[in-house]
């Protein structure tokens, strides 16, 4: 077992652990991305779908452990295990989504209900009120990278490693100037992107639950604050990763204990970000539980409810509505927003994002030899 394999398997299991609590974090009227009226929150199929979903997570966890300990191969272990975990996790979610949607359609849950769309056009203008101190750890890490690069540059050889394999050994090299630049440029770009999303999020169409609009507006404002905290925590985690890369590129982190130190620092960073996610997840689950108690007492047939718009949400995750002028909309579950893939600008943003990611990979490969 290599250090990278162990870390990726731990990260995969951590993702599954967080996914275990997703059902509690979902809005009570959007279980697994299916829009339902408030009087169906306690429907038996929803509890059954949760049980099957969590049973699937246990099976996936066993597969992750098996891939790491018994199927030692780059395709199935290490980064591959995380990719496979995400794919299987999506399939488990989609299965639960499909089961609830089928029962909803068969029993016609929206029969006789008045359906409307309610939005708050001022919600996106509310200040998140998050202190810039949340950004301090990531700035300190970035400053440490700059100091290390300046101090170590004169002593570096003409050619330095730029990529490390699963065994922790370098497998690609480039000139020291290009190597340091290809470490700094992605760091700055990713920091800027996440920071922009944290403090200057895109204008979302904030859809409000008409059965209890004031409570839902307050819930969404608090969720925006939670999202900012998570994004700032992600910047810190990203900078820890790049700092570790800088330490290896500049040969500061080397020797017999380098892998152990790398594992300890990366493991600590993973635990910190998971702790933040767990805290936000717990708070979100409590808010949704309170909202569920307030809205599950029964919905009279003349009550106004949120429009059944499942046809615009394939799989309960992606939004595709060519007739909607909004480019970004709130996610059906979780925090933040998602792109309207049916909007021309939404399609263009998706293409630009893909080109950006591919460009970083090509840049790293082009400068390495």
TrEMBL record:
Residues 322-347 form the DUF5808 domain. The chain crosses the membrane at residues 6-22, 55-72, 78-96, 132-153, 173-200, 230-254, 260-282, 348-368. It comes from Dictyobacter arantiisoli. The lineage of its organism: Bacteria, Bacillati, Chloroflexota, Ktedonobacteria, Ktedonobacterales. This is DUF1648 domain-containing protein. Keywords: Membrane, Transmembrane, Transmembrane helix. One of its GO terms (biological process) is response to toxic substance. It comes from the Bacteria. Residues 140-181 form the DUF1648 domain. PANTHER family: IMMUNITY PROTEIN SDPI. The keyword Endoplasmic reticulum does not apply.
């Amino acid at each position: 077992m290599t250090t990278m394999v162990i870390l990726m398997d731990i990260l995969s299991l951590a993702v599954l652990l967080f996914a275990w609590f997703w059902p509690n974090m979902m809005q009570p009227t959007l279980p697994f991305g299916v829009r339902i009226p408030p009087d169906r929150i306690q429907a038996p199929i929803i509890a059954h779908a949760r049980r099957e979903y969590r049973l699937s997570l246990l099976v996936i966890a066993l597969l992750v452990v098996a891939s790491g300990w018994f199927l030692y191969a780059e395709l199935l272990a290490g980064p591959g295990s995380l990719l496979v975990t995400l794919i299987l996790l999506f399939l488990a979610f989609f299965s639960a989504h499909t089961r609830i949607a089928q029962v909803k359609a068969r029993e016609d849950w929206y029969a006789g209900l008045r359906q409307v769309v309610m939005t708050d056009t001022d919600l996106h203008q509310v200040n998140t009120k998050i202190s810039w101190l949340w950004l301090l750890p990531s700035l300190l890490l970035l400053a440490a990278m700059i100091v290390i690069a300046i101090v170590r540059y004169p002593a570096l050889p003409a050619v330095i490693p730029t990529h490390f394999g699963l065994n922790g050994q370098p497998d690609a090299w480039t000139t020291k100037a290009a190597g340091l630049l290809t470490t700094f440029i992605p760091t700055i770009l990713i920091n800027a992107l996440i920071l922009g999303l944290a403090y200057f999020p895109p204008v979302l169409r904030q859809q409000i639950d008409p059965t209890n609009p004031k409570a839902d507006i307050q819930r969404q404002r608090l969720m925006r604050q939670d999202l900012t905290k998570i994004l700032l925590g992600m910047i810190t985690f990203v900078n820890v990763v790049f700092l570790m890369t800088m330490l290896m590129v500049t040969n500061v982190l080397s020797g017999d204990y380098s892998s152990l130190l790398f594992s300890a620092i990366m493991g600590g960073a993973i635990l910190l970000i998971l702790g933040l996610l767990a805290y936000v997840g717990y708070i979100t689950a409590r808010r949704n539980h309170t909202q569920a108690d307030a809205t599950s007492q029964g919905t009279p047939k003349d009550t106004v409810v949120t429009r059944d718009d499942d046809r615009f949400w394939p799989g309960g995750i992606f939004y595709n509505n060519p007739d909607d002028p909004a480019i970004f909309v709130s996610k059906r579950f979780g925090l933040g927003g998602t792109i309207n893939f049916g909007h021309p600008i939404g399609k263009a943003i998706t293409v630009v994002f893909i080109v950006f990611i591919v460009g970083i990979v090509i840049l790293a490969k082009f400068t390495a030899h």
